[in-house]
Amino acid sequence: MLPLQIHLTLPPWIGDVADSNRRYQTDEERVGLAIELSRQNVERGGGGPFGAAVFNSHSGRLVAVGVNRVVPQSCSVAHAEMMVIMIAQARLGRHRLNEDGGHYVLATSSQPCCQCYGASVWAGIDELLIGARAEDVEELIEFDEGPLPADWIGQLERRHIAVRRDILRGQARSVLATYGTSGPSY
Hints:
The chain contains 8 helices and 5 strands, in the order ααββααβαβααβα. The chain is of the alpha/beta class. It has a single domain, classed as Cytidine Deaminase, domain 2. The chain starts with 13 loop residues before the first helix and ends with a helix.
């Protein structure tokens, strides 16, 4: 019989890092959480060096978090951004996060790859906050981030998704560099 469902999980330490009662008001606080999730994922052997979080922009409330779980879950779509989008959708009970008129922010430790870029278009994200750039990922850990349109930021902005990058870029690069020198620790 073919499987009828999938089951993806985050590591149990997530609750030690992500504070669902805190209000994350600034871009730095939001990306800082994504970077800390990526750091902890590397240090605790939970997966690759990527973290992401979705926030309600107006309240500053944390909706969901995600970390890279590709290898531990044997699932190529289990990127941090994909995990957080799926968890946020499940938590809010809708496939487009902002269909209620709310304003939702996706904060990432590193620029989304081609897969996560596409998902952010359809998920109802209003703002994308980025730590490290794709070239940082490719330089420090040699991951292929896949093809993006030459004007990927313009493409998102035409779809009313504001993009801000290089937020705490040095900290995000530090996590990537640590991972790059230590090798995978799944």
